[in-house]
Specification:
The protein has about 240 residues and is an alpha+beta fold. It has four helices and 14 strands. The protein has two domains: about 15-145, no CATH class; about 160-235, N-utilization substance G protein NusG, insert domain (mini-chromosome maintenance (MCM) complex, domain 2), CATH 2.60.320.10. The strands form three sheets. The chain has a seven-stranded mixed beta sheet with strand order 3-2-4-7-1-5-6, covered by helices on one side. A four-stranded antiparallel beta sheet has the order 9-8-14-13, with no helix packed on it. Strands 10-11-12 form a three-stranded antiparallel beta sheet, with no helix packed on it. Mean pLDDT is about 75; it is low at about 1-30.
């Protein structure tokens, strides 16, 4: 995926005061996406940049699945007064991870209420430049979520598509086809087959979205940050406009 015009970065992810309403409801709509083999070295600076002195009173965290750097993440978070809990229902910050299909340049981005935000903070730009020169490409995608999304195991039937945070409709997963989405910044081509959605082509530079595993389970996402494009597998009960 292309980092130009987007601080050149991927999760799926809008930082700082102009965008932040720090009410509990709003914070749960934030989701940090971080590509790095050493997320423990970045998580505290990123969290402090997002919320700074306005960090809410609850500082509990947990993991939805086993994380390769779980021990180090626990260590640095505990050193910064975060408390590890065992259940997502108790946590303010929930970590999960997945492996990309191949290593890509390190990066980070933020989603706010399903909208991919541009990153223009001097501090974050400096941090991105640092990791781009000091860290190797990585296939580890860490997701830190404040929206308390529940883990799912059911296969989805529909995928919602958002461009610039606006939901443009749904893709049915029960048939095989391809669809090209045009954004203000370029194009993203999706293919639906075997009840899974995947990106097969994009105008972005580093093609991180192409290396994201196919999405099939409720709640799974594919993000193309430079194109401000988001696809998410929806629960079965969702009814909305189908994209033809």
């Amino acid at each position: 995926m292309d980092r130009r015009g987007f601080c050149k970065t991927f999760f799926l992810l809008p930082f700082l005061a102009p965008y932040l309403n720090v009410s509990g409801q709003t914070k749960r709509g934030f989701e940090l996406q971080l590509i790095s083999s050493s997320p423990h070295k970045l998580i505290i600076p990123l969290l402090e940049e997002f919320w700074g002195p306005m960090l809410f009173s609850g500082k509990n965290f947990t993991f939805l699945n086993s994380h390769p750097q779980e021990k180090e993440l626990k260590r640095v978070l505990s050193q910064n007064n975060w408390n590890h809990v065992f259940y997502p229902s108790q946590a303010d910050l929930v970590f999960s991870f997945l492996h990309l299909l191949k290593p890509v340049p390190p990066s980070f981005t933020l989603l706010k209420n399903d909208k991919v935000r541009d990153i223009r903070s001097k501090n974050l730009l400096s941090l991105w430049k640092e990791i781009s020169t000091t860290q190797q490409p990585s296939s580890l995608l860490t997701v830190a979520s404040f929206n308390k999304r529940r883990p799912h195991s059911n296969k989805g039937e529909l995928a919602s598509v958002y461009i610039d945070g606006k939901k443009i409709g749904l893709l049915p997963l029960k048939k095989s086809y391809s669809k090209i989405f045009r954004t203000h910044r370029g194009t993203v081509e999706m293919v639906i087959d075997n009840e899974r959605a995947r990106v097969v082509n994009s105008s972005c530079r580093h093609k991180i979205c192409l290396h994201t595993p196919p999405a099939a389970i409720e709640g799974e996402r594919i993000i193309c940050a430079p194109n401000h494009f988001l696809l998410e597998i929806e629960p079965h009960h969702l009814v909305d406009t189908i994209i033809g």
